[in-house]
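ok so dumb question maybe but i'm new to this and my supervisor (M.) told me to 'just get the structure for DNA polymerase III subunit delta' and walked off. so i did the thing. is this what she meant?? sequence i used:
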Amino acid sequence: MINYEVFEREIEKGTIRNSYIFCGLDEEIIKDSINSILNKTISNDKDNLNLIKIDGMKTNFDDIMNACETFPLMSEKKVVIVYRANFLKDKSDEASNKLYKKILEYASDMPPYTILIMYYLFNDKREKPNKNKKLNSLDKLINVVYCDKLRRDTYIKKINDIFKLKKKNIGRIELMYFAEKVQNNFDIIKREVDKLISYTSGREITKKDIDMLISSNGEEDVFDLVELIAQRKIERAMDVMKDILYKSDQHMLIISNIQRHFVKLYDIKSGLRQGKRVSDFIKELRLPQFVCEKLIGQSNKFTEKQLSELVKLCVNTENNLKSSGVDKTMEMELLLVNTLTVKR
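this is what came out, is it supposed to look like this??
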C-alpha cells in the first residue's frame, strides 16, 4: 500500500504496474493519478478503443473480466477503469462481496497486456485503507494507492499547476495565501480557481480578491457542523467537531466561531422576516452573493427562537470553558448534545 507521493515518483520514473486500486476522499486527485497512467501508456483520448470505462455500481465480474481479456488494438497495452467500485468497501451487500471474491481470484491471473484500474471514494475522514480487510487482501496482488492529503509543498505545487493550466499567473505570496484558505479538496479547489480567475479577469490576483471570494477552512467547518445540528445528526456532528479540534486545538476560538455563526443566522432570519433580500445581506455582511445565499438557506432550517437559544448555549459553554479543571472537549460535546433539547 502506497500513498500519492510514492505513486507519483514511480510514474515519473516510468514504472507502470499492471493493476491499481485508488481510494480516498478527493476524487480529483484520483482522476489526476489515473490520467498520469493513461498519458504514459495509451493516451487519454476519450475515443481510444484501448480505454474501457466501467461503472462499478452497475457491473458484474464477467463484464470486468471480458474487458480485461480482450486484446488491445494496434497497441501493446489497454486500460480498463472500474470507477465507483463500491464492492471494495469493507462492509458491502452479498452481491458486492461475491464480486470482490471473484476479483480477488482473478487478480493473480491478469493478462500482461491489460492495466486494470479500480477506484472508490471514502464516505468520510474516519475511513482508512489499512483498516479495510478487502484492500489488505488485494494489496498482495494489486497496488493500492491511498490518495490522502498531500504534503504541503506537493499540495501548493498542484494548485499552482491548475493556475498554469488555466494560463493565469498568481504571485507566490497570493498562491500560499490561497492554499491556506481554500478547502483541501481538488474538486473544490478547481472551482474556486475558476471563480477567482473570472473575478480578476485582465488583472493580477490580490489577497483582497481571495478574501472576498473564499471563506476560510474554519468557516466551512463551522457551517458543516451547524448543518448537522440542523439535521439533528449529533453523532456525525461530534465527528466533525473532533476534526476541527484536531486541526486547531483552540476550544475558545472554536466556540466563539460557532456562536458568531449562530448570531449571523439569527440576524439573517430576523432580516428576512423584515423583508430584506440577498442584496441587503451582501452589503451588511460584506460577503459574496453565493455565501449569503448559503447562509440564508441554512437559516431557514431554524426558527428565530431556536437560534436565540443556541446562542445562549454557546455563551454558557464559553463560560464553562473559562473555568479551570474542566474537560474542554467534553464541554464541546455536551454543547452538541444539548442542542437536541432546543425546541422549535
